[in-house]
Specification:
Elements lengths: L1 E5 L7 H9 L6 E6 L6 E8 L3 H11 L3 E2 L2 E2 L1 E4 L20
Antiparallel strand pairs: 1-3, 1-6, 2-3, 4-5
């Protein structure tokens, strides 16, 4: 189960995030999303937990709780919606 964790303190590390969720079960991965230029945390991340029941326990146990001075927003991650990129940029049909 992929879990979204929002409103993270900018000082939280991926290890801190992993440890917070390991209290509820096995954590496969913990990733904090960072700005690609500055490397600064964007204040949210994702945690992958293999067992859905453990993931749901983590959501129930951590949503609204305080971690390093910030109230966490924890939910099941929504799948990414891909933007359609297949169509060309000029539009219309071409006549020769």
């Amino acid at each position: 189960m992929k879990i979204y964790v929002g409103n993270l303190s900018y000082e939280i590390t991926e290890e801190d995030l992993r440890l917070a969720l390991e209290e509820f079960g096995q954590v496969e991965s913990a990733t904090i999303i960072k700005d690609k230029y500055s490397g600064q945390s964007k204040g949210f991340g994702f945690v992958e937990m293999p067992a859905k029941a453990e993931g749901q326990s983590a959501i129930d146990g951590l949503n609204g709780k305080d971690l390093k001075g910030r109230t966490l927003n924890v939910n099941e991650a929504r799948p990414r919606t891909e933007s359609p990129r297949g169509r060309g940029g000029r539009g219309g049909s071409r006549r020769f």
